[in-house]
């Protein structure tokens, strides 16, 4: 495989990726900021990934997975958006919440871990390490409680940690704990935002906010996986 890069490293022109097998060119494509590497469908048999990064602060990318046939066919078996391989595991960020209620830099981007397979991705069951620790959640709540609503950035300073902790728990298979965390954060910060008049576009009650969160999670391309890893439901629990 050969990657032909533009003349200058900061050039916006596309690079060229060319793959040859047995002296025959089987793949040729232009793409932005190309890179490539190996992954394993069935170790020790290596397959190939080719990635195109769009550049910019968003970190968006497209990765094509290839598993060449014995007859030399070279077509992608899957096309994956925005993730990357880390220590042999595909880490898939969910950008559903980017720029939704917060500025881009403050937007939560929960992740899922998966193995590449012939049909695309096989998501791994979450582990305890995938969820934020008690100490991390306490730090998020403290930052919310200590944010003055008069601060010009109070919306992001309150919403960002609220959504980050909530979504990280849901994506780790702990939806009930996520909702309980959200309710604590609502009492600590979001309610103060409402009373200050600085969040007129947000739902005016906690119940309405929970309904909005649930509906937006339903727009995620990974919604089915969220349901699976939360044993069939990510709905808010009844009031205690």
What does this structure look like?
It is built from 5 helices and 11 strands. It has 240 residues and is α+β, with helices and mostly antiparallel strands. The protein has 2 domains: 2-123, no CATH class; 130-229, no CATH class. The protein has a 4-stranded antiparallel sheet, with no helix packed on it. Strands 8-9-10-11 form a 4-stranded antiparallel sheet, with no helix packed on it. The chain is elongated, with a radius of gyration of 22 Å. The model has no long low-confidence stretch (mean pLDDT 88).
> What characteristic shape results from the CA principal axes?
elongated
Structural class, judged by helices and strands?
alpha+beta
Radius of gyration: 22 Å
pLDDT < 50 runs, ≥5 residues: none
Listing every helix as H and every strand as E from the N terminus to the C terminus, the arrangement reads: EEEEEEEEEEEHHHHH
* Main sheet summary: 4 strands, antiparallel
Question: How many strand elements?
Answer: 11
Overall number of structural domains? 2
In terms of DSSP E residues, the strand content is 25-35%
Number of helices: 5
N- to C-terminal distance: 60 Å
Keywords:
240 residues, alpha+beta, 2 domains, four-stranded antiparallel beta sheet, 5 helices
């Amino acid at each position: 495989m050969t990657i032909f890069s533009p003349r200058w490293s900061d050039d916006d022109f596309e690079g060229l990726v060319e793959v040859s097998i047995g002296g025959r060119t089987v793949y040729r494509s232009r793409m932005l900021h190309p890179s490539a590497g190996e992954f394993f469908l069935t170790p020790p048999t290596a397959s190939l990934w080719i990635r195109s990064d769009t550049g910019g602060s968003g970190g968006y990318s497209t990765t094509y997975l290839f598993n060449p046939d014995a007859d030399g066919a070279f077509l992608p078996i899957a096309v994956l958006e925005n993730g990357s391989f880390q220590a042999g595991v595909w880490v898939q960020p969910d950008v559903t919440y980017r720029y939704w209620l917060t500025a881009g830099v403050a937007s939560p981007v929960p992740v899922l871990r998966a193995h590449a397979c012939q049909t695309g991705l096989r998501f791994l069951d979450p582990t305890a390490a995938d969820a934020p620790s008690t100490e991390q959640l306490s730090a998020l709540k403290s930052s919310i409680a200590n944010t003055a609503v008069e601060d010009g950035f109070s919306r992001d300073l309150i919403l960002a940690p609220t959504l980050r902790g909530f979504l990280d728990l849901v994506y780790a298979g702990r939806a009930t704990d996520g909702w309980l965390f959200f309710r604590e954060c609502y009492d600590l910060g979001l309610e103060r935002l409402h009373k200050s008049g600085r969040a007129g576009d947000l739902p005016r009650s906690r119940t309405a906010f929970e309904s909005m969160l649930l509906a937006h999670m339903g727009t995620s391309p990974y919604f089915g996986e969220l349901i699976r890893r939360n044993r069939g439901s990510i709905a808010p629990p009844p009031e205690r």
